[in-house]
Amino acid sequence: MKKVLLSFVALMVTMSAFAELKTAKFDFANPASMGWTGATSGSSAQIKDAVLTVGDVNISVAADASSALQKVRFATTAGVVSLKYGTGAALAIETTVGNIRSIKVNGENVGAEDVTVDAGTWAAGAWTGSATKVVLTQAGAAATVNSIEVVYQIEDKEDDRPLGEKETYVAVTGTLNTETNAYEYAFSNEFANPVLTDGACTVNYSTTHITGSSVAGATAKTCDATSVTEWNEMKFDLKNHLNDNTSDLHYGIALGTGNPVFGYEIEPVWNETGFTKNYRQTFNKMNPEYDHAAKYAADQVGEPYEVPQYLEEKYYYWKPGCGKLPAQGLYHKFTSDADGQLKIFVWVNKGNRNTFLIDEETKDVVPYKVEGYMNNQTNEDGTKKFLTSADIEVLNDPAKPYVIAGTQAGGQPFWGNIIYNIKQGQTVWLFQDSSQIGFHGFEFAPFTSGTGIENVESVETTKVAPKKVFKNGQIMIGDFNIAGQRVK
């Protein structure tokens, strides 16, 4: 049964641009990947007059060092190619499609005391700020650079099509108990009756144009050397609601179990002398660039343990570009049969977790905006402040583009909308990489024709009582404007 809540009057709203974050990685061990066709050793390996390109980002030489051996050049050592340059050399990193938000340089002599920048902030091999061009000047000893990773933000073209009637799905409803003056929350029918299958707790729901599902997964309770011997319960809970008796901010949240992962493995947990203490679940590597086992072994003093211990703080469950979809754990996915604006209301814990919205086909991040309430953000009268996307951008750390819970505001819980212009036939997945994201529901408004006038009966035969509203300089009466045109 489809649940739909239709507004009486069309929302004649112009969409603002959506910021998309993209990553360009310059891997100097593979010069051909950035357009270099020259030598990788000797004087002919200098790149003074060349431009290296990955995606929409270019790297060129802004200044050369004086000595021939110190000039910006490729160099091959023990079969491995890197970029080398000396004191006084400078690299210009530039994009013409938006703003650079962060730069990470992996190499030697690239610390805070080694590099100066012409804009933004440089610290410990990383730049943060917002600029179309950044010049990195080597002030310290000669640098050897293995890779440079650039995160840049581009603005999608504004979509000025008007929005049609909204449809809404609510996963958790709240009702005020007048005796206790407190809100009491309950699941929708779908969330109250999930489908339990092997390794998944699934809830399916839909409106006129959107088909959605929320999936919670099981987590290991106990393990032996080869398998999980006991699982924790997989379920959705009622928790982390937003309550505010000074306003109308009352949102119930459904929180599921599990981390969205590709799969799991079993590994021993070792003590200091190398004896096995117990076993635990770890997850299949979804970040192809990071080998946590090799990293752990390399960090040991003396002989490494036979099986490296899992280090959570150095492991990524999911990363943009990994090319995979979560196979288990908590995630939400939505499919639309029309172009329109999708708002997904979520709860996000402290500002240290990535929130990803990815396209099912490309398996990569899509641009989205955020609006809502962040804990401790109040108006002058002490009431909770509803933050715009621009407000939240100020509170977030540009070096952590997918963390949306106010890293620079102390890492606070957040309740609000993930906003995305979804396309007809597109499916998107929403999840956090190493945590759980709470779900309240969603709202969808399809784009209408360029004039914004469309016969409502082509979508719904529902009739509504006439309602007079003054909007956009004219009186809107029921489903009609004053000219007698039916309005979508």
Describe this entry's structure for a reader.
This protein is mainly beta. The protein has three helices and 35 strands. Strands 1, 4, 5, 7, 9, 10 and 12 form a seven-stranded antiparallel beta sheet that branches. The chain has a six-stranded antiparallel beta sheet with strand order 13-32-26-30-28-29. The protein has a six-stranded antiparallel beta sheet with strand order 16-17-18-25-31-27, with no helix packed on it. It is globular, with a radius of gyration of 26 Å.
The helix content is under 10%
Mean pLDDT: 79
Tally of helical segments: 3
The biggest beta sheet reads: 7 strands, antiparallel
Distance between the termini: 23 Å
Count of DSSP strands: 35
**Low-confidence runs of at least 5 consecutive residues:** 1-16, 301-315, 451-488
**What is the global morphology?**
globular
Q: Beta-sheet strand percentage? A: 35-45%
Structural class per helix/strand content?
Answer: mainly beta
Query: If you compute it from the alpha carbons, what radius of gyration comes out, rounded to the nearest whole angstrom?
Result: 26 Å
